[in-house]
Structures are given as C-alpha cells and as structure tokens.
C-alpha cells in the first residue's frame, strides 16, 4: 500500500478547511514568515475571495493602471511589515470571475513593488452530493478565460 505523502496531506488539510479557517491560516502564515520575507527583500500581497474581507483592515485604494482600475487594495501590517490584500472580485463580491480585470490587478500590485503573491481560491459544484472536503477530478468545467485579454 503506498504511503500518503506530506503534499497530499497538505492538500487534504486545505480542502477540509472552512473559509474562516483558511483566513486564519493565511494570517498565521503571514505572521510567521514576514520577518523572513523582509530580510529577503520580498513584498507580499494576498489575493483572496469575498470570505477574506474581515481579516484585512487598513488603508484601501483603487489603482488606475494602463489596463483600467484595479480591485481595491488594502494595505495592512503584520509584524510591523506591510502586506497588501486584493479581493479579486472587488468589494462585496461585485465583479463576477469573467469580468475581473486581472491585468490591472497584477499591474497595480507590481506598482506597489509586490514581489510575491499568496493567492487563495474556492470553487463550487452544481452537484449537491459533492460536499466540502471531497476530492474530485473534474472532467468538465466552464472556462471563463476565453474571450478576454490574458497577457500583458
């Protein structure tokens, strides 16, 4: 019988976490690693979904870029280090996935000298028998990436 690898265990842990737990985990990871990141000259941003707004409070602004306006970017402090949070769907989940201005978001973060991004995501299913924590291998998906600009 094959052994379960740490990578698989990590994946399983992530799949079974609620949004609240994932948010706490990301904050703990940021708290733990910020001094190392600063030492290595890293500037970090978190890109997350609508479940993360309550975890990141600070000064928020929308950046104008050559690609249009970014999603709102919040600057906050972890261990006296500046970290940025960008909700990919805008405030209040007002932007559907196929209309997210990904190029403006990445451009805006680069303008803030962000060198590394920690991104979270979640997906859903139309099948009610699929519960949180189930591992699936999708054989069908809706690709919302076609028809939009995807590179710089």
Describe the structure.
This protein is an alpha/beta fold and 152 residues long. The chain has one domain: Nucleoside phosphorylase domain (Rossmann fold, 3-Layer(aba) Sandwich). 27% of the residues lie in helices and 19% in strands. The chain has a 5-stranded mixed beta sheet. The protein has a two-stranded antiparallel sheet with strand order 3-4. The radius of gyration is 17 Å and the shape is globular.
In CATH terms, the superfamily is: Nucleoside phosphorylase domain
Low-confidence stretches: 1-9
Report the CATH architecture: 3-Layer(aba) Sandwich
Rounded to an integer in angstroms, the radius of gyration calculated over CA atoms is: 17 Å
Tell me how many strands there are: 7
Shape: globular
Amino- and carboxy-terminal Cα gap = 47 Å
Number of helices: 3
And the CATH topology?
Rossmann fold
What number of domains? 1
Largest sheet: 5 strands, mixed
Record the SSE blueprint:
Blueprint (H helix, E strand, L loop, with lengths): L5 H10 L3 H21 L4 E5 L10 E3 L2 E2 L2 E2 L3 E6 L2 E7 L14 H10 L4 E4 L33
Parallel strand pairs: 1-6, 1-7
Antiparallel strand pairs: 2-5, 3-4, 5-6
Brief overview:
Helices cover 27% and strands 19% of the residues. It has 152 residues and is of the alpha/beta class.
Key descriptive features of the protein:
152 residues, alpha/beta, Rossmann fold, five-stranded mixed β-sheet, two-stranded antiparallel sheet, 7 strands, 27% helix, 19% strand, globular, disordered N terminus
